Amino acid sequence: MTSEPGDPTLEELAVSAAAGDREALEQLLAEIQPHVRRICGRMLIYPEDAEEATQDALMLVATKIGSFGGRSKFTTWLHVVASNSARSTYRSLKRRAAERPTDELPHTPDPRTTSVIAGSRLDLMEALDVIGVDHPELVEPLVLRDVQQLDYQEIATVLGIPLGTVKSRIHSARHAVRPLLTIKD
């Protein structure tokens, strides 16, 4: 997300796009696409899945830019949109896989194509789904902090909750996720 001297910043583009400027929206989408792809790629294992989530996130930005009120930085708002899109794509892929006949599914994971990092991402996505059932308020702060690496104040601003609540939710989420990520023999 680099620009030439005199070019509008992402914040300026976002404000213009939110006000209905179609040209600003087109420029904004072009500028953020690589960044959104990186955000989605942090959460999803396969490039095709991350690309699907990226396209969904860009569509959401295009249709929901009017809801960007400037309370937080645009990039913080974008992290939330992209993270939610990646989680939604994961749930959709999981649902589609469950609907396929079992004879189409591999019987055991192939260690040559499933890395430790990939496995841990799947475990985290599963854990987030599990805690999200009973405590959905814990998931987004944890993703924004531990996966997307936003600082606590940015999370508080974008979620519209006090800083102490953000810290408390992240602590509770880590506590809830930890046993779900413990290696089982």
Automatic annotation (TrEMBL):
Keywords associated with the record: Sigma factor, Transcription, Transcription regulation
Gene Ontology molecular function terms on file: DNA binding; sigma factor activity
Biological processes per GO annotation: DNA-templated transcription initiation
Keyword Transcription: yes
Pfam families on file: Sigma70_r2 (PF04542), Sigma70_r4_2 (PF08281)
Presence of keyword Nucleotidyltransferase: no
InterPro entries, sorted: RNA_pol_sigma-70-like, RNA_pol_sigma-70_dom, RNA_pol_sigma70_r2, RNA_pol_sigma70_r4_t2, RNA_pol_sigma_r2, RNA_pol_sigma_r3/r4-like, WH-like_DNA-bd_sf
Domain RNA polymerase sigma-70 region per the UniProt entry, residue ranges: 30-96
CDD domains the record matches: Sigma70_r4 (cd06171)
Protein family per UniProt: Belongs to the sigma-70 factor family. ECF subfamily.
NCBIfam families in the record: sigma70-ECF (TIGR02937)
Protein name: RNA polymerase sigma-70 factor, ECF subfamily
Organism: Nocardioides szechwanensis
